[in-house]
Protein 1
Amino acid sequence: MTKLIEYEEASEEVRAVYDDIRATRQNDYINNFWKAIANHPPTLQRTWQAVKEVMTGPGEIDPLMRELIYIAVSATNGCEYCIASHTAGARAKGMDDTMFGELMAIAATANMTNRLANGYQIPVDERFKT
Amino acid sequence: MTKLIEYEEASEEVRAVYDDIRATRQNDYINNFWKAIANHPPTLQRTWQAVKEVMTGPGEIDPLMRELIYIAVSATNGCEYCIASHTAGARAKGMDDTMFGELMAIAATANMTNRLANGYQIPVDERFKT
Amino acid sequence: MTKLIEYEEASEEVRAVYDDIRATRQNDYINNFWKAIANHPPTLQRTWQAVKEVMTGPGEIDPLMRELIYIAVSATNGCEYCIASHTAGARAKGMDDTMFGELMAIAATANMTNRLANGYQIPVDERFKT
Amino acid sequence: MTKLIEYEEASEEVRAVYDDIRATRQNDYINNFWKAIANHPPTLQRTWQAVKEVMTGPGEIDPLMRELIYIAVSATNGCEYCIASHTAGARAKGMDDTMFGELMAIAATANMTNRLANGYQIPVDERFKT
Amino acid sequence: MTKLIEYEEASEEVRAVYDDIRATRQNDYINNFWKAIANHPPTLQRTWQAVKEVMTGPGEIDPLMRELIYIAVSATNGCEYCIASHTAGARAKGMDDTMFGELMAIAATANMTNRLANGYQIPVDERFKT
Amino acid sequence: MTKLIEYEEASEEVRAVYDDIRATRQNDYINNFWKAIANHPPTLQRTWQAVKEVMTGPGEIDPLMRELIYIAVSATNGCEYCIASHTAGARAKGMDDTMFGELMAIAATANMTNRLANGYQIPVDERFKT
């Protein structure tokens, strides 16, 4: 188990990231993920910067859909922490049980057909190569 | 390499699935995935039924977003065939280079944070458990 | 691409493994997997010893079923080489198209339900814990 | 944590699936997997239909061997729930400690050689391509 | 949960492995991994032999670096047990919080770029093929 | 297949990244990975920044060891492009066949024991939890 770095005991560079997380999310809560990777400040800074840009920056994909994509990847990898935190995030953005069920169905079906394609060693159609 | 079952040589039960694929997609092209798994007709039938329901049935998630989720899972698993075929499918539904770039950025970031969460053995926050 | 070590140019310790592969399989063909890992003789020796014991030694699981399990894992991991070589091995031991189709269906279904179990964060039933 | 849907509070369509699970297995117990995915009835119906056909339908692969294949995939993916439930299922069908040990040895060896084949970038032998 | 085989109740062949673990590590503690796989003595013997050779034998890669590689793989696969045990092992060999943070950053970055390379279907440069 | 963006046709922001890659590596060659993700400039910028910091910045882990860790992760994920490019990178930094063989042996062994730990559902030792 990793030590979680609380705001009060954090260095200035870590506090700066925590402050930005709070301002970006308009919420004081810092979840354990950030408190854990704060043990290595450069990783905290780089990771927060990436998550902030990718998940909250302007873009063509709707913020709720971004959360769904995140959950689909996390369920595929079996990352318990990421499934729990992003499911909470998606619910806060409006995901209900039906949408979650549809998401799980898509992710599960993709995992199924991925292995059929692998196992049957199926050549990519010419028309999909361009 | 698996033998691909062409329509002309297919059994009646396989042809019925091919006919439904064509009708559902309003397109005569049957891609190699179906021609390969047609070597085992029950798997062809069950898999097409699932893909049809999950990817084309009514639901809260937009058909283009469903393709994005499919691609994110397939890129995570490294399934070359599925990446190629669903990228083509998403482009046909309107995905441009920017949307694809955003999708890849989300999938890549999720794969990155999944491993940080695993490696740091981060406990799930109480508030994410309910 | 790794250099493949042919018998003629192999060191004595590598030849000894190649000889044992030929004797165990009663077949002169050495497939590329062994010729590649022969670049590191201790890995060649240890890996062949493990594969020989696990796949050809006495045991409760039938040799053909062992090949099916191997293929299921390899399809899950997307290892093209291992899928191709063990599918050939299973066919040589009697696997036909129907059995391969059933195997793919089981592996695909397991990959599907694995992600549903992950995504829904399902607690293990008490009765499965003992 | 997902809410588990008990029989008493379930909708009619969910109860119909639960009834079929009980009849097929000749056992009243509904395990948590089904109670969790019952939050999305179409996923419950489709998934049960697939598992029923693939795991209990007629076929060339013995029901116990099907469980072993399922466990090998689940251990490869690290799905704790599926490992626990299918290990219980396999034990009920006759798997003892030795058979489980052999299964783990095969799955572990395949996972090992899969990475050697990947890492050494080994070309597939011509004879394995047909 | 698997029964853990304690030294006192172990068979002679299992005790011989436990004795060798203790002698090799110059430490009396046998961790749960070995006590669990001792349920299948041939797997215990083969696995210990491999781990002993690969992790403690002579070689060009420093023992601490071997532990880091092990952790990177285990974090990629999400194996909680292996992450915990090898993190303890690496700390005993001198890994501090900064080195662990760097390791996690490398593993996370590799997992990120692996999916970009997959998703963008990037052809291998000619110069990397030789 | 993704279009590769050559320097001559690149936008100014993309050229700035290419220039930094060349300056950092003291080598004019831009490999396909960067030319592909240049289709989405923010992903190109963020990814290069991360790779540059993590792989070439100051730190406790030797640059060659960083490449080995990268390869171990890429082999575990089966990312052909990343295996090929980072193997070339490691060889340029001094990796010989023996060191590569040792690396593969460690990665393969970790993949093996990861699945034994998963499959046997081994509880983490108390002493590894602190």
Protein 2
Amino acid sequence: MSTPLHLHEDRLFPADPAVRQIARRLYAEVRDLPILSPHGHTDPQWFAGNAPFGNATELLLAPDHYLFRMLYSQGVDLNELGVPSRRGPSNANPREAWRKFAANFYLFNGTPSWLWLNYVFAKVFDLKVRLEPSTADHYFDVIGEKLATDAFRPRALFERFNIEVLATTESPVDTLDHHHKIQSSGWKGRVITAYRPDAVIDPEHEQFKDALQRFAEITGEDVYSWKGYLSAHRKRRADFAKAGATSTDHGHPTAATADLSPVEAQRLFEKVTSGKFTPTDAELFRAAMLVEMAKMSEEDGLVMQIHPGAFRNHNRWLFETFGRDKGADIPEKTEYVQALRPLLDRFGNSKTLSIILFTLDETVYSRELAPLAGHYPALKLGPSWWFHDSPEGMLRFREYTTETAGFYNTVGFNDDTRAFLSIPARHDLARRIDCVYLSRLVAEHRIDEDAAAQVARDLAYRLPKQAYKL
Amino acid sequence: MSTPLHLHEDRLFPADPAVRQIARRLYAEVRDLPILSPHGHTDPQWFAGNAPFGNATELLLAPDHYLFRMLYSQGVDLNELGVPSRRGPSNANPREAWRKFAANFYLFNGTPSWLWLNYVFAKVFDLKVRLEPSTADHYFDVIGEKLATDAFRPRALFERFNIEVLATTESPVDTLDHHHKIQSSGWKGRVITAYRPDAVIDPEHEQFKDALQRFAEITGEDVYSWKGYLSAHRKRRADFAKAGATSTDHGHPTAATADLSPVEAQRLFEKVTSGKFTPTDAELFRAAMLVEMAKMSEEDGLVMQIHPGAFRNHNRWLFETFGRDKGADIPEKTEYVQALRPLLDRFGNSKTLSIILFTLDETVYSRELAPLAGHYPALKLGPSWWFHDSPEGMLRFREYTTETAGFYNTVGFNDDTRAFLSIPARHDLARRIDCVYLSRLVAEHRIDEDAAAQVARDLAYRLPKQAYKL
Amino acid sequence: MSTPLHLHEDRLFPADPAVRQIARRLYAEVRDLPILSPHGHTDPQWFAGNAPFGNATELLLAPDHYLFRMLYSQGVDLNELGVPSRRGPSNANPREAWRKFAANFYLFNGTPSWLWLNYVFAKVFDLKVRLEPSTADHYFDVIGEKLATDAFRPRALFERFNIEVLATTESPVDTLDHHHKIQSSGWKGRVITAYRPDAVIDPEHEQFKDALQRFAEITGEDVYSWKGYLSAHRKRRADFAKAGATSTDHGHPTAATADLSPVEAQRLFEKVTSGKFTPTDAELFRAAMLVEMAKMSEEDGLVMQIHPGAFRNHNRWLFETFGRDKGADIPEKTEYVQALRPLLDRFGNSKTLSIILFTLDETVYSRELAPLAGHYPALKLGPSWWFHDSPEGMLRFREYTTETAGFYNTVGFNDDTRAFLSIPARHDLARRIDCVYLSRLVAEHRIDEDAAAQVARDLAYRLPKQAYKL
């Protein structure tokens, strides 16, 4: 009763035969380039320990909020899918959870998860039939068997995937032990970290108090004084840089920045660390810290990434029961023109500082971000992000930004994923879609084909390498 | 001097021959499915009385704000088009009004009204020539003659249109007499009502005071006490459910919701019914009533529809002279992520309550609505609405929502129309456009064709049936 | 080492062969129509003096912020490109600046500047090879030689470009000497002015104080009294009308309008001219002046253009160093529904006053502007503007506005440019894109081809002529 699974060679390419031919030629230029993954959320422990992954549910379903949120939206309990809660691991049987997933796989029709997963199934696991209720057990068995082999251990997959660099993201209170272990292991895979200080910068973060405490311990600084707090950041940034980091990352609710005087900054710092602060104080502190981080980046050369605009943990009950990152983060309107001005007044004309902007609010592509990046030397545009990391999302990103900012104020693709096995699928999709956009321009005589091929290669390899100083 | 009128079989399908073939095959799956019309504004009196319609102007032009607003925007007076004012019926000669319309029909080039009307002309009235000045009288005569025949009475058309269910929309102070008459008539057509309580919920509605008075009379409740007011709602919801209603509908200026304590709610109720309230009070009361309505829906099972975002009666002079619904309602920015949180905190994780969201602000499709509906079990997305009930509008809806929410968090099509004769045209257009979107996905190997056919059938029939509990 | 430069006859047309055929046929209808340029920023001195233009850098690069801002965003100094600063002219060697530009011309891949420039290179200068580092000197030489010939003087180019009317834009404190000289010269070219009073209306404009002073001198009115100030406007509007003006233009930060009583207006005027005013006062004064301008337009018949939404001079250091119009104006969110209501309450139903709306915020096309223009007789929609004056931008404009407002509430194309030589390129691009949009409608049977041809002709010629009373 099963149906063949087949990845079409021309998938995602335009239907028109002439345009498809152009897309094929462009794609041939980039298909086999190494993968640069300068921003993501894989676990460095995988590459440090190189232990085999578990089963299909543990590896592919339970940690992937793109997947379980869709089933949740249709009335499936997270516990049934193997998702751990605050009380501990799920008690679901992994095979049963996988069957549940297979029974609901049709929900992903038309979504990028369908494309990514089928790539993983076909290319990584060499599965020949579609995932559907009748093949759920076959999938579970085949995936489990393969994961137990050496060829499917993290380092082997890393090499098979032709990854040149993979960046993970760590908190300032992370010991970076996994990264040190990778570095000293003799393994040639380049896995680097990135400095993501939200937990010690955002006074409204639920871990703020604890994180500050650990920040003090790990740095030996008096992080409750403004001066010590800044020194602690400097120390840890240096540690991160030693562990390979070339960038920082900032996931604030808004893009607000503020350039405070040292006295103002110190007073505000005392307020937010006293625990007696308003939401406005918290917002101002995050804003001020973006400028502080920029100052440090001018010194130490780390590229700044700003990822604003998510209302985290929107579902109160789910957050209380299951915790963070459970598919309940919802984008909000995000303003950049006023918000970034204090930062840009100070660093916008810098040729050494590089700030990469992301958004979850597509309305700002043509209205705010492309005009800003098409003018300020310090600004570049990150790729379409999260909900917009998809064929339509990527096409819109190019359609809305290219005419004002061009291709060369963008930085190629970020997979931004925890789903290690999907990395080749995601980069392949991104390369294909850039070729789709370019093929249309070529067919409409809006760019020369040799220039389009150069752009395709630059987007796939040169621009991320340069923008992230890899 | 007339030109042939011809509905092309492939209208709205993509031009590329291979994609068009796919669209044709998908459309063949849904073309003949019965029509489910779960939300609209036809007049139940038509089906209760089954009297013949009047002439072309009275039936097609004077009541249709899509049409007369376009002519008005180009300097034609509403009175000339047969549109009644607050002072009474228009004194325009219906044939003259129709000629005026014919002379300006070119204004509709590129609009959905052009598509809908040509369908009505060709398929319903079997007209063979285009509407233009030289054929205006021919149209007026043919349409008038046909409307006088039994085959063009409301019930005959209802049957000819293959409508399985048609929902109208009534106010809580409506006696539902027409619906009772239909139910007891022995006619098999299923015409149901929907509970639209804006006039008794919105303190700023111009009918609020009168409506409350009638609300008291029709329910026998003390609607000036908070308890009696809620009881009156419960009673009328039960009456509506008996008259077939499966849903409620809420047309507020914003999507604001508020979960007040009983004491707060009662105080606020006293304020807004006293007549001494601020716009902020009115907004809060509407917000609180959405949560009250949700509570009742959890009990009685009526599906909630929320249609926010219209600035009603924007043209002051026109409103004073001609009244409501004269093409002068203008959309505004509409926020959902913060606005719906009180409602979702209480009911977002419910598997029994179903809330269908609509918007006039397309920027929220990918930013807010798809992420919300792609997570919360209680939420579904209504189709692209009103100004966006159009080929480009529908394509954008799919392009902006599918990758995050999939197809199965949407509910198929609503025609939402007063223009009874256009119902088949509108459903045909919606089915075609869904097939257009799917055909592109198939051609680009982003979905399998058998899955696409299943999605097309589900969107046309199964999903509205299920979402509206029909 | 050079590559041929070739403008493909089908550039910008859809790739699908059948649709391309339709686009070709539609374009043949409009290709050779005269150019109407009812809004732009060319320098009337060119046509008054008819002196030859200088070199490639002075004519094409240094004055064009579309070009130098892109190079600036990639780290090139403005001074190197021949851009003058507040301290005086650039000391860059023009040939060196041009080489710099040629070396970076790849940055414009995918942008409208690439399309416009290649048109200018190929069609105006008859260049046969692409601009690249190896051809930079060839370009500089050829362009310089041609510019020195009589055939490349401003009036000769004006005639060669088949321009029927060209509007420039002047401040109320401009003497209009160049226009008078053109008028009395016997030359038949029609170059008209437009009334752009921002400098005497916006209390926050850096020239406000000086401009008021000159406004007094040039009109002989007591412009520091409310009555005299209004009289000065009336006088100058009459002067402008005599110099051919048919329109006014208003470039405010927002679309706010306010209908104040004479007493309120006078008080506010006294406040803003005293120099002691808040940003709120300034905003209200600009808002009130839009209504005052509308009153005068009802009297003198000048069409009003409103161009809101740019945050001017966003880059503080650049503004202080280089001044205005240096590519650092960034769009912001812009609201129209509430903002325009005072103006529309007063004039929205007028059949004599005509107000043309523009936006830099594409989100308002379908949400606000199309519904407003599709209803109010006084409103029309200007074309996609500035950052959105591009193939994708124009297609989006049609896709987002046509279904609600139709084609006939729009006014054809404005080139809005200082770059005189690019005018034919820009109109050609606009005509092609309108044909692209129409060809898709024809191919999908959403419009009849003869109607589409009529629409194409109307957009290219009849509608701008009528809307701007040319």
